[in-house]
Amino acid sequence: MQSDNQGDVIAQVTNTLVRLGLLTTAATSIDAVLTDAVKAFQQERGLVVSGDLNEMTLRAIEEARWKLGDRGLSYNPQKMMRGDDVATLQTRLIEMGFDCGRADGIFGPRTESAVKEFQKSVGEKADGLCGPATVMSLVRLVKTVSGGSPVALRDSAHRAVRGPALANKIIVLDPSSDAHDAAVAFDIAQRLEGRLIALGVTVLISRSSNKTPSDNERIDLANKSGADLVISLHTDNYKNNSAHGVATYYYGNDLHGAHSVIGERFAALVQREITARTDLLNCRTHAKTWDILRLTKSPTVRLDLGYLSNPGDAARLDDPQFRETIVESIAIAIQRLYLSAENDAKTGTLKISDLRRAGIRKD
């Protein structure tokens, strides 16, 4: 990056961080104060907290510049508009029962359709353009939906329609391609593929043993597949060997009150199943805004199945029987996701054979 361009970037970054209350004065260079402010921003936005002005952080800071009403919003398939203003618009539409999907801050065709429906309901020209008149209508109106989150209600209804059987489900498995864990992630994905196919699931694996797709290609595959669920399989590393345990991540943005309802539920289920069936430390579930979670349309979770930098976790993951236990935990969590509450079982007790006896698994 040239020095003058770097200066422009720093100026834009610091101006946004000042407006967000994370800095008191604008900085002219990357110093300790700016780095701390960037870390605070990353923490707030569900990004990896590094203090680095990497591509994802710069994009998030650019999106944070915008408040609803700062600019007109519309759908452009060549370059979709992104920003906090779009997320605010989506959140308000969702609160009033208009289906724009999740509040991901991206003005796509589903958001345009929801804007048109809202405009019709208030007697405006239904052109899908969110300008001053539409913003004022949004500001004036209060929430008209009661009895629970519209997104949660829609997701629950969708799950009920699809039913508990796995035979009509499509699941995408996305094993890591990182050098340190590509082999273990791919092996677990193949083992899980076998289990799920036996249960009647249509399974797609995002990569082969000799092909490494980009993140965008993985997201595109998942979106084109019409998947019911996407599971991204990884391990973690740390600078020393003290860190250990399993953690699960789903899409969520507390700033906009947005999260994947099904993703959050599955994250909790799989985290509980794995920690109940193994001795991996429970590092809990976490809401994040990573691209694989945010841009994939289907409910998506990322599993970090231990730390390869920890000798204990590494030894466990090197054991084929332990990998089988991980696979069974994930398979059971998938089934529990689609079971109604009255048919669910205590964590760590359900087995594949139970599904056959219940008629959920059909041979």
Q: What number of domains?
A: 3
The percent of residues in helical segments reads 40-55%
Number of helices, where a helix is a run of at least 4 consecutive DSSP H or I residues: 14
What would CATH call the class of the largest domain?
Answer: Alpha Beta
CATH superfamily of the largest domain: Zn-dependent exopeptidases
Distance between the termini: 60 Å
H/E series: HHHHHHHEHEHEEEHEHEHHH
What is the 3D form? globular
> Total number of β-strand segments?
7
Q: Classify the secondary structure makeup into a structural class.
A: alpha/beta
Q: What is the fold-level CATH name, i.e. the topology of the largest domain?
A: Aminopeptidase
Strand content: 5-15%
Task: Walk me through this protein's architecture.
It is a single chain. By secondary structure, this protein is of the alpha/beta class. The chain has three domains: 3-64, Muramoyl-pentapeptide Carboxypeptidase, domain 1, CATH 1.10.101; 84-146, Muramoyl-pentapeptide Carboxypeptidase, domain 1; 163-357, Zn-dependent exopeptidases (Aminopeptidase). It has 14 helices and seven strands. The chain has helices spanning 3-19, 32-45, 55-64, 84-95, 109-121, 132-140, 150-162, 182-198, 215-225, 261-277, 291-294, 311-317, 320-338, 352-357; strands spanning 170-175, 202-205, 229-236, 246-253, 258-259, 282-288, 300-307. α8 (182-198) links the parallel β1 and β2. α1 (3-19) crosses α3 (55-64) and α10 packs antiparallel against α13 (320-338). The chain is globular and about 60 Å long. The model is unreliable at 143-148 and 357-363 (pLDDT under 50).
